[in-house]
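Write out this protein's structure.
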Amino acid sequence: MNLVGKIFTFLVFLMCVVFATFAMMVHAGQKNWREVVVNPSTGLSKQLTDEKALKQKLEGEKKTLEESNKLELDRRDKRAAALETQNQLLAQERKANDFKIVDLEKQVRDMVGAVKAVHLTLAELRVEADSMRKQIKDAELARNDSFTKLVAVTDQFHNAVTERLRLEKMNRGLSDEVVKLREALAYYKVSADGSYKDKVPPRLLEGEVTSASNPNNIEISIGADDGVLKGHKFEVVRLSNKSYVARIEVIDASFPNRAVCRPDASMQRSQIQKGDHVYANLTSAK
């Protein structure tokens, strides 16, 4: 996988984290979504703007790396062309020298020593050319190895930064959830182990009877979202004649906007009817 592929892989991973964050926020429950979206410090709009800025920055880095790579390839091609030209010149020079040697052997037999000197010079040139080729090859290998290490270190750095941001965001989210849960437990008077501190419903809580078809299972219009818990007791009053009807006890508070109650036979004055009002912390007339 080349550098471009790694960058796009990182972008895909980053967008997955963003979408996963959106999903978690939607699943978290009832919230002020407008505040979540437009909050100037932690809102989704700001996060989206930050992500776009990060994407533009990465695209700029990608373009810079591509241009640098192109320049490096051009320089390498130029060096290779220069070496090839030099090699051709050396080959031509060697061929010319060979012709000169043949001519000299035919014309002057006593110049054998000079011819040997020329051969020695050519041998030294060959050794020098081979040495230069080896140095060039070693330099290219070292450059490629350094580039590979740079890419690996860059990927590790970006992964580490991404992981740190993810953990910090998760830590902030968990801290907020802990605070909210503690506030909810304190509001509903529930201890940390899940047991209720008392059986008294929230003050000034009221509703009405929504179903009284079964005398032993009365449904009221307030539920868990209003702070109603199993065991809470309410007073039922009929407003049409301003009379006290009965006392009821919650037997099922698992619904968000309703609860199921059972009448207290010892406190019941008349049959509970649909539309009767329900009050918390109301002292009934004996």
